[in-house]
Amino acid sequence: MLLKTDKIPYLFTVLLAMFAWTTNQLSLELGKSPTIEISSKKYIKDTKSIEYLLTNISNSVVYKDIVFSVKLEIDACNGTPRIELGPPNMKGIETEKSTCENKKTASFHLAQFHPGSKVKLVTPVDLTVNSELYVRSNTAVRIIEFSVESFVIKYKVLLLAWLFGFWLFLIGIYLIAVNKGWFTDEK
């Protein structure tokens, strides 16, 4: 017998508490950093455009007067780029019209970018081309692609609920094992 049967629930609880605390601390620490996530980047054949979907995953940072630039590998910017704002963002008077600065760069000026909101940058192009996203801001900002880091920041409550459900599952297995007599020395 490796462990006394009356100590197993305590072990489950201590392990859950350790994982929950670690998840919470990690999420809080990562959430302090001003971060914008590139939620998706894709080429749309129907509209011949490159779309970046950006999410402000910072907990409390409102970016003001931020400019995004999509730099293309070759001369391909064709037409008028546009910015699609998700709630709670609103197009303000200060928001400038998006433009192709030259055939290689599309610029998007955003007056405010609120926590938890999304922005879609649409750049019309002549053909499929590689692109990079750049940012110009008065405050420090990190731009990251979807990763474990951004997942922990965005879904902290879901992770903690999952850990609690897993703890309930383990306690249920333990209770079934005790009722079936799996921990007794009788053979």
CATH level-two architecture of the largest domain: Sandwich
- Number of DSSP strands? 9
Strand proportion, as a percent range, falls in: 25-35%
Q: Which topology of the largest domain does CATH recognise?
A: Immunoglobulin-like
Q: What is the overall number of helices?
A: 3
The coarse silhouette is elongated
* Mean pLDDT level: 82
> What share of the residues lie within helices?
25-40%
Q: Which runs of at least 5 residues are low in confidence (pLDDT < 50)?
A: none
Give the end-to-end Cα distance, rounded to a whole number of Å: 13 Å
**Main β-sheet, spatial strand arrangement:** 4-7-2-1-9
> How does the helix and strand content classify structurally?
alpha+beta
The first-level CATH class of the largest domain is given as Mainly Beta
- Based on CA atoms alone, the radius of gyration comes out at 24 Å
Order of helices and strands: HEEEEEEEEEHH
Biggest β-sheet, characterized?
5 strands, mixed
Q: What is the number of domains?
A: 2
Explain what you see:
The mean pLDDT is 82. The protein has helices spanning 8-32, 148-154, 156-180, and strands at 35-44, 49-56, 63-72, 82-85, 99-102, 105-113, 118-124, 131-136, 142-145. Strand 5 (99-102) and strand 6 form a beta hairpin. By secondary structure, it is of the alpha+beta class. The strands form 2 sheets. The chain has a 5-stranded mixed sheet, with no helix packed on it. The chain folds into 2 domains: 8-31 and 153-180; 35-140, Immunoglobulin-like (Sandwich), CATH 2.60.40.
